[in-house]
Write a structure and sequence with these properties.
Elements lengths: L11 E2 L6 E2 L2 H11 L18 H23 L6 H16 L3 E3 L6 H5 L3 E3 L4 E10 L4 E9 L4 H9 L6 H6 L1 H4 L6 E6 L10 E4 L5 H5 L3 E3 L3 E6 L40
Parallel strand pairs: 3-9, 5-10
Antiparallel strand pairs: 1-2, 4-5, 5-6, 7-8, 7-10
Amino acid sequence: RCETCSKEEAKYRCPRCMKYSCSLLCVKKHKLALSCNGVRDKTAFVAVNEFTDLNLLSDYRFLEDVGRTADAAARHATVHNAATKKLLYCLRNKARRCNIDLRTLPVGFTKRRENSTTFNFTEKKFYWHLKLVFPHSHAEYTLKGVPDDKTLADILKPYIDPVESDPVVCQRLKIYTASPQSDVQILMKIENRRRNSIRYNELDASRSLLDNLKGKVIIEYPTLFVVLKTLKNDMVVLGQDGSEPAENSDGESSSPSSVEEGEIQDSS
């Protein structure tokens, strides 16, 4: 049966989220409801016992696409622009002085094009490009010019605060606005780990964005995952259950806890 209307026999299956649909109307409805773009995730994890020749061919074509993109980026005129190189060097250098390992991608990559992070020399602080992901509502928001001295709690207020949030945003994130603030948990992916061993640091909402980013590797800009503790029953918070100590990007133990990437989902 169609998973959107539950009335007609399914004819189509979404390559992205694998939802069944019976018609173009239901396809559009499911994309709107789940914020699904309908494009297959070429980097999705596939277990070894489920790996087929089609998966191998898909990976081969993906690597070819990556090679073409990298080659095109290397030939791009902006790469050799002295002003661009100086700006990127300055950003990385300022971040390093703040104990942040900021890394940039070649021109042509999506995150490189999107990134609007700047450093204000007069105020001596960063204005970050920031992405917020709300897995339980299947929603993402992009913020620009976020000052590094702003606390994470203040950053999230326009989204999950029942009083200060925008009515449209509040409706979409109602599962968050209806939950107590103590139930909200902010996570950030730890970079430079194996794909089958992805972990997340838990951030402190009461501290500034800069304080939370210190000691971490950032590729282009930070992406924060906002989850609810009561809805992630299948998520293992490392460092709290004794199964494995939390680790930072260098593989050393650190105070923030981490969770499995595959377990960030709505378990309601």
